[in-house]
Amino acid sequence: MHEDSKAGVSRRDFILGSTKIGTTAVVINYLGTDLSMAKAKENIIGQPSGAPEAWGQDLNKVPFRYDGLAKVMGQKLYAFDIRAKDLKGWPLDEERAVILRANDANKVFEGIDSKKIKKELGVDRLVSSPDLEKAGIKPDGFFTSSVMAQIGKDPQFLGQPVGLAYFSDTERFLDVRPRLADISSYLKFGASTKSESAKAYGTSRIVRYTDDKGQELFSYAKDGSFRPPWQSPNLNGSNNARASYYAEKIKKDLNGNKWQLVEGKFGTQSVDPVFMEAEGGLAWYDPDKRELHMTLGTQSPLDDAEGCLKMLAKAKSIKIDRVVVNTCYPGGGFGGRDHSEFPLYLCLAAIFNPGKSIRVVHSRFDQFQAGLKRHAAQIKTKLAVDKQGKFQAFHTDMTLDGGGQNNYSFAVQNVGGRNASSGYAFPRSWVDSQAKPSIGVPAGSMRGFGSLQAAFAMECLVDEAAEKLKIDPIDLRMKNIITDPQAVHTGTVPLFRINSDLLLEKARQTSLWKNRDRDKKNRSKGDTLYGVGVALAVKSYGKNPGDTCLSTVMIDADGKLSMHTNSVDMGNGTATTLPQSLSGPLGRHADQIKMGVSSEFEALKLYSKRARSQEDQDKFAKDPRWVPFKAMSTAASAGAYQMRHACIQAAEVLLKHGLWPAALSIWQKTPEQLPWRKDQIRWEDGALSVPGQVKIPLKTLAAQAHKKGLVTGAMVHTYYRAGWTTARYSIEGQDQELKADALALRHGKGEDFKVLTRSEVNYPPMSHFDKGADLYTPYAVVAAVEVNRKSGKVKVVGGETFLDCGQVVNKDIVEGQMHGAWAMGIGQTLFEDSPKHEGGPGQGGWNLHRYMVPRARDVAVESVKFNIVSGPVQDPPKGMAEVVLNAVPPAIVNAIAHATGKRFRQLPIQPKKILESLS
């Protein structure tokens, strides 16, 4: 049995372990078990919170993933597996609930045939929109659409919930569960309606123009932001009008110069994340104590709690004083569970059936019907190249299908536009991007975040330009890549050099590329056509502007290190790599990590209020407890650089103000006799080593720090906006600057963290919002394919990839991301497809029997090689989980073009398209 935060909690612990949303206390409870202390025969619940014993054998290298042993042992890691009996204090009376969904969005919804569904399926109770309206329940904040389809109106999208059905009889539920896959006979619809155009979820424009001498005349980063509606062109007008002026100037340049123009209309399909586990969870509402408990897997636990509370804010008789969220592993996702609507329905299921543990059953069929999708896209791109092969201008117009709910569409279209240049330098650039609503399943922040769609179009056009100019495709790319200190097309100069040239040179030397024409001639025989293609992708990482990271690093008297963070491992391996971040400052990895933690960081006593101007920021920052954002959801490949930074900041405070004074006392030295010098500190076999002094094992230092009441824990809040926030603190009588805007310390054996008041703080200027991303990672792919003339099937038969991700924390994790992205990219290019609207997953009945994904035989497991390339300067670790996907589809498409002589611009490229092109 696992004890959640509710059971046996004292008033003191309650206050310390809670955050506030409005007047409601919110506890984000890490649902985990110390696997190193558990026996295999025990019923182990939740995420592992203690590293397996094998991790202690090598302090620098870990033998396997932190959560790997727990998974193979059958530990209950996912909310899908957990039952009420596993959670101490929860009612054992567990009922099941199912979300009923609309399979038609073009007719007026007239309600559920409650008598029929109760009689035929044994439903005990139904909750639908009239019940919500009567109770005063309405979404607010991030979720602004109707929670359930309203009677007398069209459903907003296919798969929109129309009701919750409860089942108290387990056997009856299991008997009728298959029939719930098609509930059309229980839903009542009226006449067909006329669709109306709706306002875009988000619209962006990025324009940059430099003159012949390279002087920047206009850019988003230099001149500042502007928003739609777009104004008439005016060189002397507002930024908006000036952007329109230079956009028109680029249009004239494209048509009025003797440049080689290549252009095309490209399309990408709606794609499902195909989680390892479908969403699922348990909820329990205790009306007497006015408490709501939820157990679920999520990327954004605090945001989920906030969404539920805002939905209930105006409820007439439902009052909640405390919310406890037990966080579980999400089972992968890469964005697919970032602000999912599922927690809202988990909350509602408990609210309308109080006093019982309610498990919302969500099968893979349900996940396909309702889970967030990758945005389908239509991209028009025009590229201009001069006779020397230098890129002169490009214009991209990208439209994303956001489905029926504005999840992260407003941001995805913007990030897609900001990454539209694919790592090339352009003196003139103009990108328009937007996300529009439809009746499709809502799309969200799936891996790539809009940049995959943009990279596909640009990389295919670059190959077309090379063909027309009769230039080797790698040579053309090498002529035009961004090099230090060139700006990307937003006008922002990247913080670290983008080493695309190193990767392309490596790609050029592969046998696949060097011999591609010879091999094409030799291997294209009979019905087989052979080809090799290349692609480059450069992707920003982090949520800049606005990366907010929290970390706590502690050491016990036995020298065991523990780490708590608001980050969630969503398949990116941070449960493994973040503990390893302590190896530098503290000589070994963390022995314990708790992820998705939020409540304990209330010890920092922070509050946030949105600053809308530099004047606002300067005013708010005078309050030492103010921060721009308190926390963020896990996203944007931010683990390697941003989250790791927070962990290291905390660890270095622990080292300097806890372990170093402990060492001085053991050596019997004063700070004057042996001043702190970070550059002289080394860790050798788990012992602190300083020239001229006896080595001291970490365990000995920890015992001394606890004995003397020195710093034994540090908690930090960090913020990045195209630069780290810095602040000054008086720590143990020493004035010190940290790249952190909040700090709390724990001493000796004390369990309480005490917040320190910063004396000054320097937030990056508000103008950095317009700089956007300044952190980028490059990736190059060479892919080989065989195309069968008779069947039209395309088979990937080989490949080699090259990545520069800065310092590598864990090579196995990096390579694992590359392997997974290779398979995912092949799926996006050749296999995965589903209609966006009618006939698609939104109408139900879809699973892996209809949605085709690549298998091992399809991904050239034995003939693809993944390479990690080190730059001339070893940069810090860079986010890379998204970029390694983006280059795969265009490399395959370019290989197909090399094999067949035909260009394909719409994904996926399935046999029918091949046969039509070759006929």
Write the layout of secondary structure elements.
Blueprint: E1 2-3, H1 11-16, E2 19-21, E3 24-30, E4 32-33, E5 47-48, H2 68-72, E6 87-88, E7 94-101, E8 107-112, H3 114-121, E9 125-128, H4 129-135, E10 161-167, H5 170-176, E11 187-192, E12 202-210, E13 216-218, H6 220-223, H7 239-256, E14 260-268, E15 281-286, E16 291-297, H8 301-311, E17 322-328, H9 342-351, E18 357-360, H10 364-370, E19 376-385, E20 391-401, H11 409-418, E21 428-436, H12 451-469, H13 473-480, H14 500-508, H15 511-514, H16 516-523, E22 528-540, E23 547-555, E24 561-565, H17 574-580, H18 583-586, E25 592-594, E26 607-608, H19 614-620, E27 626-627, H20 639-667, E28 682-684, E29 687-689, E30 696-697, H21 698-708, E31 711-720, E32 726-731, E33 734-738, E34 742-747, E35 754-756, E36 760-762, H22 768-771, E37 776-788, E38 794-803, H23 811-831, E39 864-868, H24 883-886, H25 888-900, H26 911-918
Detailed description of the structure:
The chain has 919 residues and is of the alpha+beta class. The protein has three domains: 88-195 and 279-362, Aldehyde oxidase/xanthine dehydrogenase, a/b hammerhead (Aldehyde Oxidoreductase, domain 3), CATH 3.90.1170; 202-270 and 374-541 and 773-918, Aldehyde oxidase/xanthine dehydrogenase, molybdopterin binding domain (Aldehyde Oxidoreductase, domain 4); 547-771, Aldehyde oxidase/xanthine dehydrogenase, molybdopterin binding domain (Aldehyde Oxidoreductase, domain 4, 2-Layer Sandwich), CATH 3.30.365.10. Helix 11 (409-418) runs parallel beside helix 12 (451-469) and helix 20 packs across helix 21. The longest helix has 29 residues, at 639-667. It is globular and about 80 Å long. The termini are far apart. The model is unreliable at 1-18 and 34-41 (pLDDT under 50).
